[in-house]
Write a structure and sequence with these properties.
single chain; 404 residues; alpha/beta; six-stranded mixed sheet; four-stranded parallel sheet
Length: 404
């Protein structure tokens, strides 16, 4: 299965998906990034690396993750709804898929430390886990707002031996965590590898993270055919940076009869800048964090403030391949607001006994809307993470509305 995840045609040699992507970084850092690109190109062709990664996916992560037919939810909404259970992976989300790849790459490059940002904490936990496994130090930058909101994951990172670096400037959420991690990486790019947590950043990260995550769709395609005898009519995944969505979508991009839906966070108000994080819906092309993509911008063209109830989705840009797919019309990008996401969080918990991450709940909410269309057909949702990390926050802020 891992042989299939390194065979994608895009981006080009400069890291562009159409007009999006590239590498907008200082020349001295570009030299380091060229080394990362070369090292990644080498391991992609290395059968020993592929075998080691496949072994870890199977015996450490627990892959393949199953597909579950959510019959109770399907009955309620009138269409067959299926869940790709990435929440069952070791560490509780899809993030471990690329974190293991990044950790193995860092080890082979002779790096001593992994450094990264995290919002919801799932990437931080996964990278701390991978660092512990391969024997690397690990620094995770996390906004103070998210530290308070996702404290169970902060504890997990510390137990795993990671150094959690609080970010205290700006809105103290994901964008600022990326700023902080980039600054620390620039200070010492020689002994550290930046383990970027999504399909964002300068080339080769959008490609590299996409490749590692595409195991999700490669498995799902085979599993769904075995379960139903055909491909799903619809794929649905939440989109912040967009790694879980690209993980599911990649294997199906050439299957024209499979519709794809990326679901952005509409937050408190989709029409008010600063109250949502729907970068594709309301953004325009811009450059931040070393890459060009759709970006929410203020009146000066700088990254705008963003908000989402889901800490893993509140980012003012999006992976460049998503922007390319938006322009092509290959993927339909929609949005779900906070209330709809929290409703879906409780609904899946109480109808199917599965507590989802708030990020994944955005995809669930949209899929249920889609299911109400009598002609929608089968729907496969990427359940990208489990909701253990969100329980305290949800109960404190919404519990009384749901009888808790």
């Amino acid at each position: 299965m891992t042989d299939n995840i390194f065979n994608c045609e895009l981006p080009d040699e400069s890291g562009y998906f159409g007009e999006y992507g590239g590498s907008f970084i200082p020349p001295e850092l570009q030299e380091i990034m060229n080394e990362v690109t070369k090292a990644y190109e080498d391991i992609r062709e290395d059968s020993e690396f592929r075998e080691e990664l496949a072994e870890l996916y199977k015996h450490y992560v627990g892959r393949p993750s199953p597909i579950f037919h959510a019959k109770n939810l399907s009955k309620k909404y009138g269409a067959p709804l299926y869940l790709k259970r990435e929440d069952l992976n070791h560490t509780g989300a899809h993030k471990i898929n690329h974190c293991l790849g990044e950790a193995l790459l860092a080890k082979k490059m002779g790096k001593k430390r992994l450094i990264a940002e995290t919002g919801a904490g799932q990437h931080g936990v996964a990278l701390a886990t991978a660092a512990a496994l391969v024997g690397l130090e690990c620094d995770i930058h996390m906004g103070e707002v998210d530290i308070a909101k996702e404290y169970p994951n902060v504890v997990r990172m510390k137990i795993l031996g990671a150094n959690v670096v609080p970010v205290t400037h700006g809105r103290k959420t994901l964008k600022e965590a990326v700023d902080s991690a980039f600054g620390a990486y620039l200070a010492d790019p020689h002994t550290q590898l930046f383990g970027i947590g999504s399909v964002v950043g300068p080339h080769p990260y959008p490609r590299m993270v996409r490749d590692f995550q595409s195991i999700v769709g490669a498995e799902a395609k085979e599993q769904f055919l075995e379960m139903t005898g055909k491909l799903p009519d619809n794929l649905v995944a939440c989109v912040g940076g967009g790694s879980n969505a690209m993980g599911l979508f990649t294997a199906f991009l050439k299957d024209e009869n499979v519709a794809m839906h990326g679901v952005e966070p509409a937050g408190r108000d989709i029409n008010v800048l600063g109250e949502h994080a729907a970068s594709i819906t309301h953004g325009k092309p811009g450059v931040m964090h070393g890459f060009k993509s759709y970006m929410l911008q203020d009146e000066n063209g700088e990254p705008a403030p963003v908000y989402s109830v889901a800490s893993g989705l509140d980012y003012p840009s999006v992976g460049p391949q998503h922007s390319y797919l938006k322009d092509l019309g290959r993927v339909n990008y929609a949005y779900i607001n906070d209330k709809e996401a929290i409703d879906a969080f409780f609904e899946l918990s109480r109808l199917e006994g599965i507590i989802p991450a708030i990020e994944s709940s955005h995809a669930l909410a949209y899929a249920c809307k889609l299911a109400k269309d009598n002609n929608s057909g089968t729907i496969l949702i990427n359940l990208s993470g489990r909701g253990d990390k969100d329980i305290d926050f949800v109960v404190e802020n919404y519990g009384s509305n749901y009888g808790i």
